[in-house]
Amino acid sequence: MIVVVVVVYKAFSDLNTCLRSLRAGPASRVVVVDNSFHSAGSCVDHVANWDSDRFVHVVPHDNLGYARGNNLGIQHALDLGADFVIVCNPDVIIMPPVIDRLVSEIERGSYGLISPFLVEGTLGSTERPPSLSRPGWDLALGRGVISTNASEWASRLYPTFFGACFIVKSDVVRHVGGLCEDFFLYCEEADYCQRLAQHEIRWAISPEVGVEHNRGASISDGSTRGKSLIGLHHAARSMVILGRRYWPSRSVVWTVLRIALSILYLARGRPDSARAILTGLLSGWRADVSKRIAPRFS
User: Fold this and answer.
1) Considering only CA atoms, which of 164, 173, 284 is closest in space to residue 233?
2) What angle in degrees, to the nearest 10, is found between the helix axes of 248-267 and 229-246?
3) What is the torsional sign of CA 102, 73, 34, 136?
4) In this structure, is the dihedral angle defined by the CA atoms of residues 216, 96, 101 and 199, taken in order, positive or negative?
5) pLDDT tens across 156-205, in order?
6) In 138-288, which residue ranges form alpha helices assigned H by DSSP?
7) Beta-bridge mates of residue 117
8) pTM for the complete prediction?
9) Contact criterion met (CB below 8 Å) for 7 and 33
10) For the segment 115-125, what is each residue's pLDDT rounded down to a tens digit?
11) Quick check: 76 and 31 in contact, CB under 8 A?
12) Do 231 and 239 meet the contact criterion of CB atoms below 8 Å apart?
């Protein structure tokens, strides 16, 4: 059984498109964790042709963020009897052949987890040429790297998969545990890769199977695709926590770079954005990184 988990926070238009693409696919269930239920109403009211037999609407007590929201969805998927769990952002479009090809690839390659590559734009579009995204963590700058070209994609090894969309075997999440809930947004996949390595579980990014990604729908400020204040805050916070846990010597450098970014926002007349970054840094340095909050699944 294949179960898809989608965590949504207000990105209702993108969610509608995502669920339409999943409706024609082979997934037995789609678990939608509605993080914005208490602030923006039920996502079901914004989705056309909701199929209650196939789509499972989960309402948490509050906005749980990416990691906790997906963990809640993964637990529901396992309770439903999932053999494979697909974690998918609402701004991702998964065409019907993709899921079958990912399942085939994960089994053929003896992987525990596979992520499709992401296409920023429309697959096959002639109006706006799509661009590939590359995942991961820029260890020099302490930030995500979001664009590349085909030649770079083929020649470079990346330290993490795409958190926006990946498929994982159910026995892997039972063995390794859920996503680390020390992170509200960002860096969960980089942390998960370190834990997969500790358990000697192989993972990969598919060189052949891709999905369409409308980047930033869940963390934009509503009027643009720029990060919201909560996005800026947690990008800074998660960066510090990740660095302190795995690359302590680089955490200070990354912090200085974020302070420089906050100064740039101040110069541009955006003090709220600067404050969001600085409070995120402070929260990251105050966090206890000696313990990892990552639930175990039965």
Assistant:
1) 284
2) 160
3) negative
4) positive
5) 445 678 888 999 999 999 999 999 999 998 889 989 988 998 999 999 88
6) 150-155, 170-176, 188-198, 229-246, 248-267, 271-286
7) 210
8) 0.85
9) yes
10) 888 887 654 44
11) yes
12) no
